[in-house]
Design a protein that fits this description.
Elements: H1 3-25, H2 32-55, H3 63-79, E1 83-85, E2 88-90, H4 92-109, H5 113-129, H6 131-141
Antiparallel strand pairs: 1-2
Helix pairs in contact: 1-2, 1-5, 2-3, 2-4, 2-5, 3-4, 4-5
Length: 146
């Protein structure tokens, strides 16, 4: 992984956090952690394509097709983990984390080990570390007025 990869992943973490924060404050089903994982994961998929060309190379390699297949297939897998009952949606963060680990797996597959490692650290940060942020936001929002 290069410094540029770290900058891209970090910026993705920050920008995903901003959007996710807004959604969390609006009490939307897809909140902070879900948005951050999707943002960081998508950045990771794009960076992985660059690493695939560098690592594996060759005129017949089209990393975008490989990555496209993984993204699409895992999207269906994640969709299966989302449940809706009586206006409540569950499983969105699980779906995003499944999608994120696909990005990690693709990164490892093209020997982008450092990128996979930072993606894993960021995913764990979001899944575990952001729990306190969600609790804080829930306390600040108070009871629903709508």
């Amino acid at each position: 992984m290069t410094v540029q990869d770290l900058i891209a992943m970090s910026l993705s973490l920050v920008l995903g956090t901003l959007v996710g924060w807004e959604r969390q404050m609006g009490r939307k089903p897809a909140g902070l952690r879900t948005h951050v994982l999707v943002c960081v994961g998508s950045t990771m998929f794009v960076l992985t394509a660059k690493h695939a060309v560098t690592s594996i190379g060759g005129p017949s390699l089209d990393p975008t097709r490989i990555i496209h297949g993984v993204v699409t297939g895992v999207g269906f897998l994640g969709a299966g983990s989302i449940l809706r009952q009586e206006g409540y949606v569950a499983g969105l963060t699980t779906a995003a984390s499944i999608w994120m680990v696909a990005a990690i797996g693709v990164s490892v597959g093209v020997h982008a080990y450092a990128l996979a490692t930072i993606g894993t650290v960021f995913a764990l940060l979001v899944l575990e570390g952001y729990r306190w942020v969600e609790r804080f936001l829930s306390q600040q929002a108070g009871p629903d007025e709508g």
